[in-house]
Amino acid sequence: MSGRSLTGYGELLTMEEVCIVLQLSRNTVYELARTGDVPTIRLGRQLRTPRAALEQMMDRSTECDSADV
User: Fold this and answer.
1) Which residues are within 8 A (CB) of 22 and not within 5 positions of it... i.e. 6 or more apart?
2) What is the DSSP string of 1-27?
3) pTM of this prediction?
4) 14-50 confidence digits (pLDDT tens)
5) Half-sphere exposure of 22 toward its Cβ, with a 13 Å CA cutoff?
6) Rounded CA gap, 63 and 41, in Å?
7) Helices (H) and strands (E) in the chain — how many of each?
8) How far is the C-alpha of 19 from the C-alpha of 4, rounded, in Å?
9) Contact 13, 19 (CB under 8 A)
10) What is the spatial distance between Cα 27 and Cα 42, in angstroms, rounded to a whole number?
11) CA 49 to CA 23: how far, in whole Å?
C-alpha cells in the first residue's frame, strides 16, 4: 500500500496513512488538516480522515491537474 491508492485502507485513515497516500510529510498533512484542505474527524485526541472524502479530494485535484494541460 504505497502512494495514491486507497485500496486496502479502512473507512477512516490515520494521519500517517494520509501521509503515505498523498506522499506528503507529517507536518504538511497536519497543516492541511488544520486549514481544512484535508477533511478530518476528531475522535478524542486523534484525527481521522474519511476514505470517501479523501477520494473526492483527490478526484478534484486530478480534474484540476488535467485541466491545466
Assistant:
1) 4, 29, 38, 58
2) --SS--TT--SEEEHHHHHHHHT--HH
3) 0.80
4) 999 999 999 999 999 999 999 999 999 999 999 999 9
5) 27
6) 25
7) 3, 3
8) 10
9) no
10) 17
11) 15
